[in-house]
Structure formats: structure tokens, C-alpha cells
Design brief:
By secondary structure, the chain is of the alpha+beta class. It has helices at about 15-35, 55-65, 105-110, 115-130; strands at about 5-10, 35-45, 45-55, 70-80, 95. It has a five-stranded mixed sheet with strand order 4-1-3-2-5, with helices on both faces. A hairpin with a 2-residue loop joins strand 2 (about 35-45) and strand 3. The protein is globular, with a radius of gyration of 14 Å.
Length: about 140
């Protein structure tokens, strides 16, 4: 079975604690069924997510997200084959990313739009290694 990772960013639409809780409940249940793992970094101005697992399941998950009206301006930043997962035990890890990645000012100034595939993957590698904000 070939595994892939997809990383994307989007802007939340209608972001609040209730909307986030709904996204996490839905994602964890569906991902468990589909053998998809990953992490969601979120705050009021940004969703940044890494999905990993069997290629067909990850592609289908990303397609659902791209159509989800809780996300605006969904932009895929990375898509690559992998030999192992960064988040093998997480149906969907949640990290609020309050201070350790792009600031709100950097996001507003377009830093996310200029991020490279390596930049986005480094964010998730840091999170997986425990160097990001705690859950």
C-alpha cells in the first residue's frame, strides 16, 4: 500500500470553539475509518493541516475538505509519497499554534502564500517532534 502526505492551508469561515469541535469530531471519526492520520493547526485566521495515509483515502479526504464551506481559499502546499507517518497514533491531532509558527501579522502579510513545500512540512515535523505548542 502506498502512503502519501498532503499539507494544505485555508482560512476558517465561521471559526469558533463549537465549529472547531465539530470539525475535530467529524475528522477523527472519518479518519479512523479510512486509516488517515495527521494534525490540524488552527486559529481564528488560519487552518494548516497535514493528512497522511493510503493515497486514495488521503486524496478523498482532501477533496472533501476543499468542498467544505467551513474552509475558504483552500490551497495545497505539499503532496508527496512517504515511507512512514509523522502522526501514526493520531486520527487528527489538534494544535492551536498560538505562538510558534506564522504570526497573525505574518499571515496577513502573505507569508503563508510564499511558503514552500519544505516550509510547510517543517512545521509538521517540529510538531511531531514535540517542538511545537503542546496539545
Amino acid at each position: 500500500m502506498s502512503l502519501i502526505q498532503i499539507a494544505y492551508v485555508s482560512r476558517p469561515f465561521g471559526y469558533d470553539a463549537s465549529a472547531l469541535a465539530g470539525i475535530l469530531v467529524d475528522a477523527r471519526a472519518r479518519n479512523r475509518e479510512d486509516d488517515v492520520t495527521g494534525a490540524l493547526i488552527c486559529r481564528a485566521d488560519l487552518y494548516c493541516q497535514l493528512l497522511e495515509g493510503p493515497e486514495q483515502a488521503v486524496q478523498a479526504c482532501f477533496s472533501r475538505i476543499a468542498r467544505d464551506d467551513r474552509h475558504l481559499e483552500v490551497r495545497k502546499l505539499a503532496s508527496l509519497p512517504i515511507s512512514h507517518r509523522l502522526f501514526p497514533g493520531w486520527d487528527m491531532r489538534h494544535d492551536p499554534a498560538e505562538s510558534w509558527m506564522w504570526s497573525r501579522e505574518e499571515t496577513a502579510a502573505g507569508q503563508v502564500e510564499t511558503a514552500t513545500e519544505n516550509d510547510i512540512l517543517m512545521v509538521f515535523r517540529k510538531l511531531a517532534a514535540g517542538r511545537g505548542a503542546p496539545e
